[in-house]
């Protein structure tokens, strides 16, 4: 029997399908990976803004994730929007039963694009603790600044932030995304290599399509899918960045706000 790769997403629900849990599952499918999912929050949102956030009962998150991991253990797992401190605590408890060696990708979602908080401020310290279990954390520059209390707007600042996620918060690797920066949207990758941290810049090209919904979710989901296939961190990131660039290039207008990513069919 062929072993089919499985990727799990633990994230908030976006009823537009343009981000969050629904987008993660679409990305997994596009990349030939079976997707399992545990919702951490329901949202009322459209392509313009988030109108309301309703965290899932923490005990339900805990039960769902424990049962899922016991029966259908994934080959890689993504954490996205976690909403509240109690949900973060429940996720941390459930992950104690995650088999060893399963990579965790954390997309530390703090705010929506319109500024709506998507994680309670009091939950940030618990998220920082979870990051210490991550094979990769994928913050944008504003998220890096918030979680590390640093300045990540410059190239030197972004490098220091990426290094901080590895040295201070103990992630195995950090990809600080440059989409919010002026000029080319270059990303910086920090990877733990023994007792040192290797820093590498990954050049990007800004695609002039107007605002596009869900790019950060898609990137972390694509990396998770590639890790589930057994790719190493460098291969997974390179493939995922190309996948998202193509999806942005093929984005389309559907509602009255941001465009949606144009994803390919199943692999």
List the total number of helices.
8
Proportion of residues in helical segments:
25-40%
Global Rg: 17 Å
Question: For the report, how would you describe the main beta sheet?
Answer: 6 strands, mixed
CATH homology-level superfamily of the domain at 6-135 and 205-249: Ribokinase
Q: In terms of structural class, how would the helical and strand content be classed?
A: alpha/beta
Could you name the ranges where pLDDT drops below 50 across 5 or more consecutive residues? none
| Count of strand segments | 9
Shape: globular
**How do the helices and strands follow one another from N- to C-terminus?**
EHEEHEHEHEHHEEEHH
CATH topology of the domain at 6-135 and 205-249: UDP-N-acetylmuramoyl-L-alanine:D-glutamate ligase
CATH class of the domain at 6-135 and 205-249: Alpha Beta
* Oligomer description: single chain
Going across the major beta sheet, what is the strand order? 3-2-1-4-5-6
Second-tier CATH architecture of the domain at 6-135 and 205-249: 3-Layer(aba) Sandwich
- First-last Cα distance: 19 Å
Beta-strand portion reads: 15-25%
Mean pLDDT: 94
């Amino acid at each position: 029997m062929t072993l089919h790769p499985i990727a799990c997403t633990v994230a908030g629900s976006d009823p537009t399908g343009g981000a969050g849990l629904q987008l993660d599952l679409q990305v997994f499918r596009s990349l030939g990976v079976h997707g399992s999912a545990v919702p951490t929050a329901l949202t009322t949102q459209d392509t313009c803004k988030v109108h309301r956030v309703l965290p899932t009962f923490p005990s339900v998150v805990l039960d769902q994730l424990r049962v899922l991991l016991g029966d259908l253990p994934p080959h890689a797992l993504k954490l996205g929007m976690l909403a509240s401190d109690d949900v973060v605590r429940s996720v941390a408890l459930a992950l104690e039963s995650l088999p060893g060696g399963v990579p965790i990708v954390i997309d530390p979602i703090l705010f929506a694009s319109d500024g709506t908080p998507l994680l309670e401020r009091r939950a940030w310290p618990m998220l920082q603790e979870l990051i210490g279990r991550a094979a990769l954390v994928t913050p944008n520059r504003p998220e890096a600044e918030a979680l590390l209390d640093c300045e990540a707007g410059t190239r030197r600042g972004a490098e220091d932030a990426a290094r901080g996620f590895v040295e201070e918060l103990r992630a195995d690797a950090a990809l600080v995304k440059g989409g919010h920066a002026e000029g080319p949207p270059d990303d910086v990758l920090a990877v733990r290599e023994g007792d040192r941290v290797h820093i590498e810049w990954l050049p990007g090209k800004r695609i002039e399509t107007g605002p596009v919904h869900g790019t950060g979710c898609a990137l972390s989901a694509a990396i998770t899918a590639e890790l589930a296939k057994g790719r190493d961190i460098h291969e997974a990131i390179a493939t995922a960045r190309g996948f998202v660039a193509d999806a942005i290039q093929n984005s389309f207008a559907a509602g009255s706000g941001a465009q949606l990513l144009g994803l390919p069919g199943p692999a």
